[in-house]
Amino acid sequence: QDGEAAFILKQLHEIESEAKTNDHLTIFKIGPDVKRFGTPKPLFNMCKPPDGSEANGISEGKIAFQRNFEKKFKTPFENALQFVGREEQYNTSQIFELTASLKNREEVQNADNIRLIIFSNGVQNSVGVSQYPKSDVYFKLFSEFQKSPYFKGMNFGDFLKKTNIKIIYLVSKETEPYQTIENRDFLIQLFKSVGARSVQLIDHKTY
Question: What is this structure's pTM?
Answer without folding.
Answer: 0.87
